[in-house]
Every structure is written in structure tokens, then in C-alpha cells.
Write a structure and sequence with these properties.
5-stranded mixed β-sheet, 338 residues, single chain, Peroxisomal Thiolase, Chain A, domain 1, 13 strands, binds acetyl coenzyme *A, alpha/beta, globular
Length: 338
């Protein structure tokens, strides 16, 4: 790898892989657990089924992440020892410490490189590839592994009381390998990372009474499970999704038509439809796979990327916009020249 005359390097995504739990949770399964219906779920969210990790048999975030990274390394045709840094986007590490990053780096046989987790909920993978791109362009690192993983179903209440959030989520992991490139035009060309902690009250997981926002009354049944004001999150997502697309197109000085792939966080098919309608994005430029996996939080965006990659739809020279929003509240974009 060489720098250009101005000392610039580019960044290339040289491989990807995904790993999903075997266990499924269909809408029909949910009908047995709570007062809901397949028709209601499909109409409101577009989801048919989702994967659920079997925590009891040790299917944790680090296990899913390890398998995803192994596949990404095979796809990239490099060894784990060639990674200079490992970053993991997750909000469901197996325990407060060690991080998923440390566990995966050990499991796949990295050198004693830096490894860490970054928590921006559903925006985590998007934040993390943007950070990784900047770290490679700074010259400090050449090859970085980036994983998006969550086993969020451990925080779901599958009863009538928790049904508002229960229908949405699934577990999964996917990974990419980023590497410095001789072509300085390649890599991230614009990005936005946003957060509004004031909106945290609409989407949170309380582990004790102190974690309840002022507006929400303490209720023991809510502990350690996803608490969501669905309508507030829906409104936030539709608005910010569209705003951040406009902001990113403006930063890059391009039109929506110039983008070949919109790789979007899969939270609700209606949220994706609203962005498609607003910017006139044709179906083939915005892959929707929520019907198969639900919202896999940090895994969502790299799973879409890996599916696009393995179906041969991604070509060098194309432009790709990663887009996400989630708990925090967080939202953002990362526009790449491939
Ligand atoms: N099955 C059947 N009925 C249900 C269910 C269910 N699973 N859940 C709620 N209902 C009922 C409600 O009780 C309510 O009944 P009522 O009118 O008698 O009171 C009715 O359905 C409508 O409820 P709403 O909450 O208003 O339904 P809405 O149309 O808003 O859809 C949904 C709910 C699908 C959750 C939607 O609000 C949504 O998708 N919001 C965005 C959520 C999201 O994207 N979250 C992830 C963010 S990413 C992250 O970082 C985690």
C-alpha cells in the first residue's frame, strides 16, 4: 500500500461474513406466547420471523461475533494475525467485562492487537465503520475488523405485558474487514453521527429503579427488558432518517440518484418505505430483509451488506450509503465510495 502525492490513503471493504443463531421465532410462535397476530405484526412492521440465540447453551454475542468474523476473514482471504485492530458494535456484551472484542480477538487468534466494544445501539455498526475509516486514513492502522452483533432477545419480555417491543427484535451478527488502499478516492466520503440523550426515555433497558426516566413510573416487570414508546420512536426514526439522508447528500454534493445502495438499519419496513418515497429510491437500491430477521440492532446493517455482497450486487466504483437510528437516541450515516 502506498500513499498518493498528498499522503492520502483510501479504505476498502475487502471481505464480509454473517452468522445467525439456528433458533427461529416466527409470528406464529409469538401468537402462542402473547396476545398478538401474524396479520398485525406483518401489517405494522413487515416482519415474518426472526432468529433467537439460545443463551442457555452458550450462544452469546461473542460466539455469534466470532463466527461472523471468521467468515469475513475467509472472504477477505486474510489471516486473523493480519488484523491491526478489532472493533465491535454491540449493546449486549456477554458480561460487563471482558468486552466482546477481547473475547473474539482471542478466539480467532489475533496478535495482541487492540480490541474493544462501541455502544451506539442500532447505530453502532455505522458509528464504528466511520471511526475505523478515519483510523486507517490517519495512517495508524492498515487492517481493521469491524463486527456488528447483538443478542437483544435476552432483554425481551415475551408476554402480553412486553408485546409492543417483543415482536420487533431478533439476534444476529455480521462482520467486515477494512483495509488501506492505494486508491485515495475509496472509503468514506461523508458521514454524520448524531445523538440526543434527551430522547433516551423513549427507548431504554432499566436494570434498577434509578434507570427509570422521570416520566416513566417504576415497575418491577420492566426491569432488564426493552422499554419502548413505539410511536415516539417511529416518529423520531422517520424524521431523522430523511433529515440525515439530505444532510449527507448535501455534504457530498451529490443527489439521491447518484447512490447505488442504501444499506439501512432494519427496524420497521414502514420506516424504510417512508425514506424510499421521499427520495424516490427504487426497490433494488434499498434491500429490505426485515421479514426474515426482524431488528437485529448492531447486526442489522452488516447483515444487509453481507447479503448484498454475496448476491453479487455490490460492484467496485459504486456509492453506498449506510443509514441507522436507534436507542440513545442515536442516528447517522456513512457514505462510501467503493
Ligand atoms: N400485537 C397486537 N396488538 C398490539 C401489539 C402486538 N404485538 N403491540 C401493541 N398492540 C396494540 C396496542 O396495545 C394498541 O392497542 P389500543 O389501540 O387498543 O391501545 C394498538 O395495538 C396500537 O399500538 P401502537 O403502539 O400505537 O402501534 P403502532 O402502530 O405504533 O405500532 C410499533 C407499534 C410496530 C412498535 C411501531 O410503533 C414501531 O415500529 N415503532 C418504531 C420502533 C422501532 O423502530 N424501534 C427500534 C428502534 S432501534 C433500536 O435502537 C433498538
Amino acid at each position: 500500500m502506498t500513499e498518493d502525492a498528498r499522503g492520502r490513503v483510501g479504505v476498502e471493504i475487502i471481505g464480509s461474513g454473517m452468522h445467525l443463531p439456528e433458533g427461529t421465532l416466527t409470528n406464529q410462535d409469538l401468537e402462542q406466547l402473547m396476545e398478538t397476530s401474524d396479520a398485525w405484526i406483518v401489517k405494522r412492521t413487515g416482519i415474518n420471523t426472526r432468529r433467537r440465540a439460545d443463551l442457555a447453551s452458550g450462544e452469546t454475542s461473542s460466539v455469534l461475533a466470532t463466527e461472523a468474523m471468521k467468515k469475513a476473514l475467509v472472504n477477505a482471504k486474510i489471516e486473523a494475525t493480519e488484523l491491526d485492530l478489532l472493533l465491535v458494535a454491540t449493546m449486549t456484551c456477554d458480561s460487563p467485562t471482558p468486552s466482546v472484542g477481547c473475547v473474539v480477538a482471542h478466539e480467532i487468534g489475533c496478535r495482541d492487537i487492540g480490541a474493544m466494544d462501541i455502544n451506539a445501539a442500532c447505530s453502532g455498526f455505522l458509528y464504528t465503520i466511520s471511526i475505523a475509516d478515519a483510523m486507517i486514513k490517519s495512517g495508524a492502522y492498515k487492517t481493521i475488523g469491524v463486527i456488528g452483533v447483538d443478542t437483544i432477545t435476552r432483554h425481551i419480555d415475551y408476554s402480553d405485558f412486553g408485546r409492543g417491543a417483543a415482536i420487533l427484535f431478533g439476534d444476529g451478527a455480521a462482520a467486515v474487514v477494512l483495509q488501506a488502499s492505494d486508491d485515495p478516492e475509496k472509503g468514506m466520503i461523508a458521514h454524520a453521527m448524531h445523538a440526543d440523550g434527551g430522547g433516551a426515555k423513549h427507548l431504554f433497558i432499566p436494570s434498577c429503579a434509578l434507570d427509570f426516566p422521570e416520566e416513566v413510573e417504576f415497575d418491577e416487570r420492566k426491569l432488564n427488558t426493552v422499554q419502548m414508546n413505539g410511536q415516539a420512536v417511529f416518529k423520531f426514526a422517520v424524521t431523522k432518517f430523511q433529515e440525515v439522508i439530505s444532510e449527507t447528500l448535501e455534504m457530498a454534493g451529490i443527489e439521491a440518484d447518484d447512490v447505488d445502495h442504501f444499506v439501512c438499519h432494519q427496524a420497521n419496513s414502514r420506516i424504510l418505505d417512508s425514506a424510499r418515497d421521499r427520495f424516490g429510491i427504487p426497490e433494488e437500491k434499498l434491500l429490505v430483509n426485515i421479514q426474515k430477521y426482524g431488528n437485529t440492532v448492531g447486526g442489522s446493517i452488516p447483515i444487509v451488506y453481507d447479503e448484498l455482497m454475496s448476491s453479487g450486487k455490490i460492484k467496485p466504483g459504486q456509492k453506498m450509503m449506510f443509514l441507522a437510528f436507534g436507542a440513545g437516541l442515536t442516528w447517522g450515516s456513512s457514505l462510501w465510495q467503493l
